[in-house]
Amino acid sequence: MTKEPAVRRLREARLKLHQLEFVVAVDERRSIAAAAEATNLSQPAATRMLKEVEAILGVVLFDRTRRGVTPTLYGEALLRRARLILAELRHMHEELLALAGGVEGRVAVGTLLAASATLLPRSIKILRERFPKVSVQIIEGTFDVLVPMLRAGELDILLGRLPRLAGDEGVATELLYHEPTCVVARPGHPLARRQQVSAAEIRAADWILPPRSTLLRADIDAAFRACGLAPPQPMLESVTVLANQRLIAATDLLAFLPRDIAEYYRGHGLIAIVPAELGLQPAEVGLSLRAGRLPSPATRVFADIVREVAGDLALI
What GO terms fall under cellular component here (predicted)? Predict the structure, then answer.
């Protein structure tokens, strides 16, 4: 596909927004039939639309198999840009509505563990009080999943432990406060009754740890190595707070939790904090936005509220 014929085809054929929306729907569902149903198209019309888009661009966007469809290299490139275009159009619509009659719209928030207990709920509560026409979609995950979603425009803002990015990767980060991390166990656990517990003693325990892909896991492993110890091998890898808390309560497993979450559960008698001497550095908690893009009005007011709440948390 040479550059000039491709550009000419785009100008002449006028690729339409509903076609981009359909291509994104196909990728999300990995099925032309499921995308047709989601976009209220018949199966023949959906198949015809995809062929039309591929003809306009002069490339194959999806590989068809018996199990469904997967994007080709060309498809992945188009999908990245299509998601950004659709996100910008949504932001444009929200900004026009804000100018006409007050801020409204939707904010897609990605949340990492450190922001889930207090920062995010308090921020949403204030947002609801001040801007009742703004809705929030929360997507939980690890940074290796959420950061690409932020870049692609599927998320408007990311809250939690700041990602460590090499160079300019399309993400602008802002530090809000530092959050210590605690070792936790069930109430009555022998280590929780002690005044001090050495790194070697907690190293010998059975563990629930976050997956290796997470920043917290990297910091945990580094802290044990700094003590001259090999990192523990967990019995379970998980960042699901509720499931972890239930397992901790029913077993002798140890886990790491941000202090905010640990204090909440301890206050309700659900866990105990182990006074461990590990030297784990407090996490940098902050917000991340797409670099070089003007956030929607709804995202801007939500980010301001997050900063306000974070300022209060930093003083605690």
Answer: cytosol
Evaluate if residue 200 carries a pLDDT over 90: yes
Q: What's 3-79's CATH class?
A: mainly alpha
For the whole prediction, is pTM greater than 0.70?
A: no
How far apart, in whole angstroms, are the C-alpha atoms of residue 257 and residue 259?
6
Which sequence spans correspond to the domains of the chain? 3-79, 103-177+284-314, 181-281
Fold of 103-177+284-314: D-Maltodextrin-Binding Protein; domain 2 (3.40.190)
CATH topology of 3-79 equal to that of 181-281? no
Question: What is the SS3 assignment for 2?
Answer: coil
Q: What is the CATH T-level fold of the domain 181-281, as seen in this structure?
A: D-Maltodextrin-Binding Protein; domain 2 (3.40.190)
pLDDT (mean) for 292-305: 89
Beta bridge partners, 106, equal: 135
Q: Are strands 207-209 and 283-290 parallel, antiparallel or unpaired?
A: unpaired
* Sheet strand arrangement including 236-237: 236-237, 207-209, 254-258, 181-185, 272-274
* Angle, in degrees to the nearest 10, between helices 3-13 and 43-57: 140
CA angle 99, 102, 104 (to 5 degrees): 105
Looking only at the bridges linking them, the beta strands covering 157-161 and 283-290 are antiparallel
Residue type, 11: R
* Number of CB atoms found within 10 A of residue 103's CB: 22
* Residue 175 pLDDT: 93
For 263-312, the DSSP string reads: HHHHHTTS-EEE-EE--PPPEEEEEEEETT-PPPHHHHHHHHHHHHHHHH
Rg (CA), the chain: 24
Between CA 26 and CA 32 the distance in angstroms is 6
